């Protein structure tokens, strides 16, 4: 009897699974009629609130890193959906320089959790042909974590199906400062800069020194957790991005949230293009 119940349950599960993947494929097909973003960036907010809700360790004590497990898997699921949709670039704000100001035991457990996740990523991204890139001031990380990040970057350098950029020890102001200082240094040794360049060319040369230079500007920035701020994330790159904030906590983000964000982007883009066209006609 128990065996029969189990096999019926399994069968029901399979039917549900294939039905939901069929529905997802249909919805994605409809989405593809409109413009599909080339780059989506995520501000993954709400991990601690989720841990609290689930009564997971959220006080930074031993094992506190476990609270980011669900968040990590949510990112992997988003990566899969983006691949299926044809979104090539995915960027995740994993740890800001300001996060170093959290309680030391919390920072420590988060860093230990990151290291564990990098090992997992190493297996997952190779299967999915994803190139991993790290954006941020990696000098601020422990030697072990930095070495692991660099290994992952090198090991996936040849993949090109998608590009996953993990912003770690990152703030946008730090990135801009870094790019400007690098550019000044290049100008000092007269490497690339020409005083007669027009501003567009100068901007491009500064942009080349950004941590995010591997990716085009994001089309959509999705922030979970209900806040509407950019919190020092991609300030330079977001000047034409569609900002989409949602109340859902990051580990709870699902396919419908992504679909809704893309639909909003498509509506916004059509509106923006129409405005531009009208501007030209005037
Ligand atoms: C390898 C890799 C990319 C791993 C990703 C792991 C992950 C989900 C990191 C998020 C880290 C973080 C500080 C999120 C903000 O939520 P919060 O802690 O501020 O939560 P709150 O908004 O509820 O306070």
From TrEMBL:
Keywords, sorted A to Z: Membrane, Transferase, Transmembrane, Transmembrane helix
SUPFAM superfamilies the record matches: Undecaprenyl diphosphate synthase (SSF64005)
Coiled-coil features, chain-numbered ranges: none
Entry keyword annotation includes DNA-binding: no
Signal sequence bounds: none
Enzyme Commission code: 2.5.1.-
Bilayer-spanning residue ranges: 247-265
Keyword Transmembrane helix: yes
CDD domains: Cis_IPPS
Pfam families according to UniProt: Prenyltransf
GO cellular component: endoplasmic reticulum
GO molecular-function terms, A-Z: ditrans,polycis-polyprenyl diphosphate synthase [(2E,6E)-farnesyl diphosphate specific] activity
InterPro entries: UPP_synth-like, UPP_synth-like_CS, UPP_synth-like_sf
Pathway(s) served: Protein modification; protein glycosylation
GO biological process: polyprenol biosynthetic process
Family classification: Belongs to the UPP synthase family.
PANTHER family (UniProt xref): DEHYDRODOLICHYL DIPHOSPHATE SYNTHASE CPT3, DEHYDRODOLICHYL DIPHOSPHATE SYNTHASE FAMILY MEMBER
Functional note: Catalyzes cis-prenyl chain elongation to produce the polyprenyl backbone of dolichol, a glycosyl carrier-lipid required for the biosynthesis of several classes of glycoprotein.
Protein name from the UniProt record: Alkyl transferase
Provenance organism: Gossypium davidsonii (Davidson's cotton)
């Amino acid at each position: 009897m128990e065996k029969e119940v189990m096999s019926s349950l399994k069968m029901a599960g399979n039917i549900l699974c294939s039905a939901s993947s069929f529905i997802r494929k249909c919805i994605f097909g409809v989405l593809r009629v409109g413009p599909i973003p080339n780059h989506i960036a995520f501000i993954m907010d709400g991990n601690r609130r989720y841990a609290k809700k689930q009564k997971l360790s959220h006080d930074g004590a031993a094992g506190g890193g476990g609270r980011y497990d669900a968040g990590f898997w949510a990112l992997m699921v988003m990566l899969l959906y983006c691949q299926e949709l044809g979104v090539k670039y995915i960027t995740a704000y994993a740890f800001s320089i300001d996060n170093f100001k959290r309680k030391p035991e919390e920072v420590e457990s988060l860093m230990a959790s990151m290291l564990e996740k990098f090992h997992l990523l190493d297996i997952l991204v190779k299967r999915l042909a994803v190139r991993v890139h790290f954006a941020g001031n990696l000098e601020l990380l422990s030697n072990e974590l930095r070495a692991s990040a660099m290994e992952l970057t090198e090991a996936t350098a040849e993949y090109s199906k998608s590009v996953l950029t993990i912003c770690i020890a990152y703030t946008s102001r730090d990135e801009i400062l870094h790019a400007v200082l690098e550019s000044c240094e290049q100008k000092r040794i007269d490497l690339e800069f020409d005083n007669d360049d027009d501003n567009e060319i100068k901007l491009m040369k500064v942009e080349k020194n950004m941590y995010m230079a591997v990716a085009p500007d994001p089309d959509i920035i999705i922030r979970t957790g209900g806040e509407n701020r950019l919190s020092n994330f991609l300030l330079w790159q977001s000047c034409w991005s569609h900002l989409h904030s949602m109340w859902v906590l990051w580990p709870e983000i699902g396919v419908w949230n992504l679909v809704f964000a893309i639909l909003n982007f498509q509506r916004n883009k059509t509106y923006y293009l129409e405005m531009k066209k009208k501007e030209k006609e005037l």
